[in-house]
Amino acid sequence: MSDQAQPYLISVPDHDLEGLKQRLTWARFPSQLQSADQDPWDFGVPVNEVQRLVNYWKDGFDWRRAESQMNELPNFHTDIEVEGFGVLNIHFVHQISPVKDAIPLLFSHGWPGSFIEVTKLLSKLKSEKGQPAFHVVAPSLPNFGFSSGVTRRGFGLGQYAEVLHKLMLKLGYNQYVTQGGDWGFWVTRSIGLLYPEHCKASHVNMIAARPPRWSSSPFLALQHAMTPYTTREREGRKRSEWFDQEGYGYNMLQSTKPQTIGVALADSPVALLAWIYEKLHDWTDSYPWTDDEILTWVSIYWFSKAGPDASVRIYCEALHAGSVSGITYDQLRSYIPNVKLGLVHLPREITVVPSTWAAALGPVVRQSEHPHGGHFAAWEVPNVLAEDLWAMFGKKGPCFGVIPGRNGY
Q: Which residue of 35, 120, 317, 376 is most buried, as measured by CB atoms within 10 A?
């Protein structure tokens, strides 16, 4: 096991590129379900969209160009030993700020995202004039991107948290703060639960919460009972209900039969494209995806070290955590003390909760609301995320000086 982090070069072999092209050449497409009064996206990705992207992926998309752009990032990899699972090789982006007292920030992506989501934040968080600076660490989670995969059962949220925490310690960051959405929410919440003496504050852009309970949060429960929902909260409940009724099918499948959907994702780049592109479309706030962006995101999964099927296992492990003595969803939706919490509410997130629900998650020091933005906040609205972090950790912010000796200035 290596004791030091080493530079990492993303370099997909030529034969893998040729293999992808061959598979795309033999693609078969379904018929399109028609309805005069419904948006074709209501049935999933329109067939003509898939055909267009497959043709471009095969004949026009330049992976080497995308690869070169990603290699301009400060990519590294290192070995991390996980209790009961041996050594994993973890890929990560590590941007060191020139500011001496910069704050160590651990950024955790989710599915179907990757480390690439941090890209637009890096320049903003490095040394913006008048704002706190951050040393940013953005790993590929195990089973994602260019990190090792795990095929043994029981690798749940606690193990993901262990990997990221040990990575921060290995980089010399004994105390740090976190930012996350999607699985980044659950993983960074797990870090706060397991390592509160090291994780001093968390900021999240996907908020998974339930109504406050009288038994655990009586004041918030009373406030929730007595206060009408705001316009944002009413619209948010509609968005959440839409997701539960029309957008949750992928989650049920990946949470219960990951091996089945894994066959399609591992064998067919077309299936992978459709499966991911649907989420990029439905979960964002009319974000103008370019074909190059879409295919870069999907290609990272296709060329991932563990294979495109590995990423969905986290759903099953998290849902069945009780059977392997892992961290459960209920634990992470409950009040986690000692770790200060900042929350950003975006209108096109897949789950949009009232402020009183969110306040029951922990010692909340900041909640902000924004008129635009969806699930992939760092990619869609990086300015919003950066400004929220600056407000939280800046000189007048509630988390200024939360890490002794590191105030960001």
A: 376
For 227, the token pair is: 């206060």
pLDDT of residue 211: 87
Output Rg (C-alpha) for the chain, integer angstroms: 21
Low-confidence residues of the chain: pLDDT under 70: 1-2
Q: For tokens 């050594």, what's the residue?
A: 87
| Catalytic residue status for 62 | no
Active-site annotation holder among 109, 315, 345, 370: 315
- In the chain, what is the greatest distance between 2 CA atoms, to the nearest angstrom? 63
* Cβ atoms < 10 Å from Cβ of 337: 9
Give 54-85 pLDDT, tens digit per residue: 999 999 999 999 999 999 999 999 999 999 99
Helix, strand, or coil (residue 332): helix
pLDDT of residue 1: 58
Tell me whether residue 404 is exposed, middle or buried, using C-beta atoms within 10 angstroms of its C-beta: 0 to 12, 13 to 18, 19 or more. Answer: exposed
Give catalytic status of residue 375 as yes or no: yes
Please state, as a whole number, how many other Cβ atoms lie within 10 Å of the Cβ of residue 123.
Answer: 12
Amino acid at 85: F
Domains of the chain: 1-28+40-409 (3.40.50.1820)
Pair of tokens at residue 351: 């789950």
Nearest to 168 by CA among 77, 114, 73, 104: 104
Helices (H), 178-324: 183-194, 218-226, 231-242, 249-256, 258-267, 269-282, 291-302, 313-319
Sheet architecture: strand order including 86-95: 6-7, 75-82, 86-95, 134-139, 103-108, 176-180, 199-204, 340-345, 364-369
| Residue pointed to by tokens 């339930």 | 210
Provide the pLDDT for residue 322. 77
Task: State the pLDDT at residue 223.
Answer: 83
Clarify whether 315 is annotated catalytic. Answer: yes
Strand-pair partners of 138: 93
β-pair type (75-82, 6-7): antiparallel
